[in-house]
Amino acid sequence: MIRVLAFMRRLPGVSRDAFREHYEKIHVPTALPTLGGILAYVRHHVREEILGAPGFDCMTRFDYRDGAAIRSALARIQGPEGEAIHRDERLFMDAPANVFFPAEEAEGWGTPGAGANRLLVCVRRPEAEQAAAFRARFQQRALPTLRSAAGAAGWCRPHWALAGLAQGQGFDLVAQLGEASAGEIADWAAPLEAEGALVVAARVSVHQTPMPG
């Protein structure tokens, strides 16, 4: 399985509520016929900015069977079958500003529940630091303290960016926390920001489309 995280931005003049409404009621049904070979299709719509300016209005998670499924989907999207998707995007989405990258889920804590609301914490490493070094340092120092900073969230699933197919400047870490309060996120992020990292956090609502087995 290959996971891709995509960060979508709304057009200027489109409210977050209107963006979410269009995405869920119009764009999802428009895109589904072209997304063959996909195992999971989950949207995380920003409802409240907790820390910083996220720069996106929705994080969409695509789980593909394998690399061949990704290549096949991209070919369809870039061909005649994808024209309806692109036409619809122009109505509500700033598609050129979208960011996406492959990611792997890492060990966190707890068991994800079925709640519709989550906290999303995204971190980009300092510009001069290598990805592997930042990941090791973060997992040792920052990840253990995130639990208490997020109001003792019942579960957390960190995702680390991988090299490969990508567009735009993404994040090194994307952590999903279930039923979390904002807690002391700003205090937790302060040392990371002092070192040059970018940290944003937002409360999101989760919308998942059941995929054929």
Describe the structure in your own words.
There is one protein chain. The chain has a single domain, classed as Alpha-Beta Plaits, CATH 3.30.70.100. The chain has five helices and eight strands. It has helices spanning 16-31, 67-78, 83-92, 131-149, 185-194, and strands spanning 2-8, 38-51, 58-64, 99-105, 117-124, 156-161, 173-178, 198-209. The chain has an eight-stranded antiparallel β-barrel with strand order 1-3-2-8-5-7-6-4. Helix 1 runs antiparallel to helix 3 (83-92) and helix 4 (131-149) runs antiparallel to helix 5 (185-194). It starts with a strand and ends with a strand. The mean pLDDT is 92.
- The dominant shape is globular
| CATH fold-level topology | Alpha-Beta Plaits
Q: Helix amount, in percent?
A: 25-40%
Q: State the major sheet.
A: 8 strands, antiparallel, barrel
Strand content: 25-35%
Integer average pLDDT: 92
Please tell me the CATH architecture by its name: 2-Layer Sandwich
Distance between the termini: 14 Å
Low-confidence stretches: none
What is the SS-derived class?
Answer: alpha+beta
Q: Tell me the number of helical segments per DSSP (H or I, 4 or more residues long).
A: 5
CATH class: Alpha Beta
Side-by-side strand order of the widest sheet: 1-3-2-8-5-7-6-4
Gyration radius, rounded: 17 Å
- H-E string: EHEEHHEEHEEHE
How many beta-strand elements?
Answer: 8
Number of domains: 1
